[in-house]
Design brief:
2 domains; 9-stranded mixed beta sheet; M20 family metallo-hydrolase; Alpha-Beta Plaits; about 35% helix; Amidase_Cbmase; alpha/beta; 4-stranded antiparallel beta sheet
Length: about 400
């Protein structure tokens, strides 16, 4: 494999972006479509045959000696959030491209076919819904739900599909079946600080955390800040602050399980310096890989809502917005990835993923694993996110070894 060729691939793909700071390559936009077409050409030049399915997923196939055998697949995504960096998702695709190029360079033949998959719409930035491509591929996409999706400019998902030569009414035809794929592994930047702090080159992902999300609305009383005594107040902000702190405290008590709790949005009305806040809205994200641990934090949130409403004289209601189940990676593949690292003398760490990935859906279809490479300072979804080419090449070596073992080199 060639480090400089990998570097050049990153430089070339970064050109496909809308205006703004960092990378802006949202799902189903012209920028993403142009990037996708560029990559299709690169995979074809590497000798692969490429097709686009009914969801917009790009599937590049390197034929094996026995074409009827199930494929060994890898993949990730190239769509981005607003003001993104160059590595989230893209790292998995460009490393897969380099692996395929190297196999062609060396005339390697495998028994099983290989695939590199560019999943469509992994990020929720445009339509507020994530991993649409992998959900479609695994038969987990709700058609009724997709019809309601609209971006900030009023463009519906149906219209975005049309702009890409796709038909949302046919998206169910993207579904694949268990006997088609032998195994799937996704390489991704960690998006956190653990590997860098532990000085490990590779993260072998054991499980992917899933969130439960809530909207908490608080009704207090908006009053004059100068004329309302402290013991007469029904301050929605302070009630919300107590609830937010209870989430933090509960999550800290679950450190051994890696469960986290975040109040990502906290808005108040009327929002004037001389007015006691009358209403507050909190959006809470609680996630982890251990179901029991996660539910303990949820229970604390619910208890806090009840207690704060009573002690502060507030009206509080809470809606559950979504609930997803944590996903375990295939234990056999986890052991195989660790064994490859050992044989190559690569430092590794078994770890959970706090972020969601397309692998969550693929795990419902076939044995699935994940490889992490370090993220400098743990930054991601940020123009400053960075992983060195040398670190990516270490990940590429592990990915290549895994795919060749699974596909059986002739």
């Amino acid at each position: 494999m060639k480090l400089e060729r990998l570097r050049q691939s990153f430089e070339e793909l970064a050109r496909f972006s809308d205006e703004g700071e960092g990378i802006n390559r949202l799902a189903y936009t012209e920028a993403e479509r142009n990037a996708r077409n560029y990559l299709i050409r690169q995979f074809e030049l590497a000798g692969l045959t490429v097709r686009t399915d009914y969801a917009g997923n790009v599937i590049a196939r390197r034929e094996g000696k026995s074409p009827d055998l199930p494929v060994v697949a890898t993949g990730s995504h190239i769509d981005s959030v607003y003001a993104a960096g160059e590595f989230d998702g893209t790292a998995g695709i460009l490393v897969a491209l380099e692996v395929m190029r190297s196999l062609t360079d060396e005339h390697v033949e495998t028994e099983h076919p290989l695939e590199a998959i560019i999943f469509a719409c992994e990020e929720s930035a445009r339509f507020g819904a994530s991993t649409l491509g992998s959900k479609a591929m695994t038969g987990r996409l709700d058609p009724a739900y997709t019809r309601s999706l609209t971006d900030r400019n009023g463009v519906t998902l149906f219209q975005a599909f049309q702009e890409n030569g796709l038909d949302l009414e046919e998206v169910h035809l993207a579904k694949r079946f268990r006997d088609e794929i032998k195994s799937f592994v996704e390489l991704h930047v960690e998006q956190g600080p653990v590997l860098e702090k532990q000085e490990a080159a590779i993260g072998v992902v054991s499980a992917i955390a899933a969130p439960i999300r809530f909207h908490v609305h608080i009704d207090g009383t908006a009053d004059h800040s100068g004329t309302t005594p402290m013991d007469y107040r029904h301050d929605a902000l302070l009630g919300g602050a107590e609830i937010a702190l209870s989430v933090e405290k509960a999550a800290l008590e679950e450190l051994e399980h890696g469960t986290v709790g975040t109040v990502g949005v906290f808005s108040i009305q009327p929002g004037a310096m001389n007015v006691v806040p009358g209403t507050a809205d909190l959006y809470v994200d609680i996630r982890g890989t251990n179901r029991e641990s996660r539910m303990r934090v949820v229970d604390t949130l619910k208890t806090s809502v009840t207690e704060v409403a009573k002690t502060r004289g507030l009206d509080i209601w809470m809606d559950e917005l979504s609930s997803e189940e944590p996903v375990q990676m295939d234990k056999i593949l986890v052991a195989e990835l660790k064994s490859i690292c050992e044989k190559k003398g690569v430092t590794w760490l078994e770890m959970p993923s706090g972020a969601g990935h397309d692998s969550m859906n693929m795990a419902a279809l076939c044995p699935t694993g994940m490889i992490f490479v370090p993220s400098k300072d743990g930054l991601s979804h940020n123009p400053a996110e960075y992983t060195s080419m040398e670190q990516l090449m270490e990940g590429a070596e592990v990915l290549r070894a895994f795919m060749l073992k699974q596909a059986k080199v002739l």
